[in-house]
UniProtKB/TrEMBL annotation:
Main location class: cytoplasm
Protein name: Glutamine--fructose-6-phosphate aminotransferase [isomerizing]
Enzyme class: transferase
EC number assigned by the record: 2.6.1.16
Catalytic site: 361 (for fru-6p isomerization activity)
Keywords: Aminotransferase, Cytoplasm, Glutamine amidotransferase, Repeat, Transferase
Included range, full protein: 247 to 612 of 612
Gene Ontology molecular function terms on file: carbohydrate derivative binding; glutamine-fructose-6-phosphate transaminase (isomerizing) activity
Reaction equation(s) it catalyzes: D-fructose 6-phosphate + L-glutamine = D-glucosamine 6-phosphate + L-glutamate
The keyword Repeat belongs to this UniProt entry's keyword annotation: yes
Keyword Cell cycle in annotation: no
Function: Catalyzes the first step in hexosamine metabolism, converting fructose-6P into glucosamine-6P using glutamine as a nitrogen source.
Subcellular location: Cytoplasm
GO cellular component: cytosol
Length: 366
């Protein structure tokens, strides 16, 4: 039931702290992630993996895009990510010892399932791993290994808690791959600590709900919006744009901020709100100069910024602060305000938030 919440989506947004805690439960060891959490034989397999191919659709695909930044940076394993509807019909090259990873809330998405079957019948393939929210689903049954996200039933068509529990699972995969390669180290200890703190941090992020609701009126009359991020925050910008499109029917696009001057800057004027995700990471200064370019063209800026990022409120610049956080964890935290923004804009517009037009929760046909 929805309990006291007006929509399932809002309830599911607010459940994220709890379901992230459940997804972590029993999977963190002392200073590292346990390497056997993907099923029997998975600890031995982790050290044999030479390449990773991630395949998914929609929101799950965005989680895979974040994972690519994490896995290549922290585990050093070359990683590719592709939408399932393209992967399944492409005769791509599968390098030797590839771990084939599917990401899916439902475990029944037709294209993702077909991509899994396609991979299983080709060379290069080492094993398949499903990161999935529905136990006993086709994806889990047909994969060699699995890691369940414990998000619980997700009723809202727009995916929220499934996405953040996928991210947590993918960070655990990253750390398991690293452990299999180099044993214990300070980075793993730091991130295991950060993961343990995460449920509490998520609740701090959700406390922004009221501020975001007040902000949402600035979007209700708009026809377009542009989301910007850099590095692992680019897929988070994509996810923010998808959420806004799906439930408020406002056309939204996301760009890696460095691409602005290669085209989309031409769209920016005072009717184009620009939303930026700006944690205190190594790219924040570059992002800030991209934002100045937007402001110079009259674009109204809505910046979700880390506590210590030096950017100030002013004419046409709105800044909402999020708690200071380990930069690896930032994609998880900064997803929350974008989910809440889409939700409140949709409510203002009076759309059917839990069942947006033309969409189905589980896409079991091509
Ligand atoms: C977006 C959304 C869809 C799904 C996509 C994949 O809010 O819900 O984009 O993410 O259809 O579904 P799963 O994860 O079940 O494979």
């Amino acid at each position: 039931s929805r309990g006291n919440y007006r929509h399932f989506m809002l309830k599911e947004i607010h459940e994220q702290s709890e379901v992230i805690a459940k997804t972590l439960e029993g999977r963190l060891g002392d200073g590292h992630v346990m390497t056997n959490i993907f099923g029997s034989g998975s600890d031995a397999l982790m050290s044999d993996v030479r390449h990773i191919q991630i395949v998914a659709c929609g929101t799950s695909y965005h989680a895979g895009m974040v994972a690519r930044y994490w896995i290549e940076k922290m585990a050093g394993v070359p990683t590719q990510v592709e939408v399932a509807s393209e992967y399944r019909y492409r005769d791509g090259v599968v390098p030797d010892n590839t771990l084939f990873v599917t990401l899916s809330q439902s475990g029944e998405t037709a294209d993702t399932l077909a991509a899994l079957r396609h991979a299983q019948s080709h060379g290069g393939y080492l094993a398949s791993l499903a990161i999935c929210n529905v136990p006993g689903s086709s994806m889990v049954r047909e994969s060699d290994l699995s890691l369940m996200t414990h998000a619980g039933p997700e009723i809202g068509v727009a995916s929220t808690k499934a996405f953040t529990t996928q991210l947590v699972s993918l960070l655990m995969l990253t750390l398991a791959l690293r452990y299999a390669r180099s044993g214990d180290d300070a980075l793993q200890a730091r991130l295991v600590g950060a993961l343990r703190q995460l449920p509490q941090l998520i609740n701090q992020g959700l406390a922004l709900d009221g501020d975001i609701e007040r902000l949402s009126s600035a979007f209700a009359e708009k026809h377009h919006a542009l989301f910007l991020g850099r590095g692992p925050m680019f897929p988070i910008a994509l996810e923010g744009a998808l959420k806004l499109k799906e439930i408020s029917y406002i056309h939204a696009e996301a760009y890696p901020a460095g691409e602005l001057k290669h085209g989309p800057l031409a769209l920016v004027d005072s009717d184009m709100p620009v939303i930026a995700v700006a944690p205190n990471d190594e790219l924040v200064e570059k992002l800030k100069s991209n934002l100045q370019e937007v402001r110079a063209r009259g674009g109204e800026l809505f910046v979700f910024a880390g506590e210590n990022v030096s950017i100030s409120e002013g004419d046409g610049v709105h800044v909402l602060r999020l708690p200071e956080v380990d930069e690896v964890i930032a994609p998880l935290l900064f997803t929350l305000p974008l989910q809440l923004l889409a939700y409140h804009v949709a409510v203002l517009k009076g759309t059917d938030v839990d069942q947006p037009r033309n969409l189905a929760k589980s896409v079991t046909v091509e």
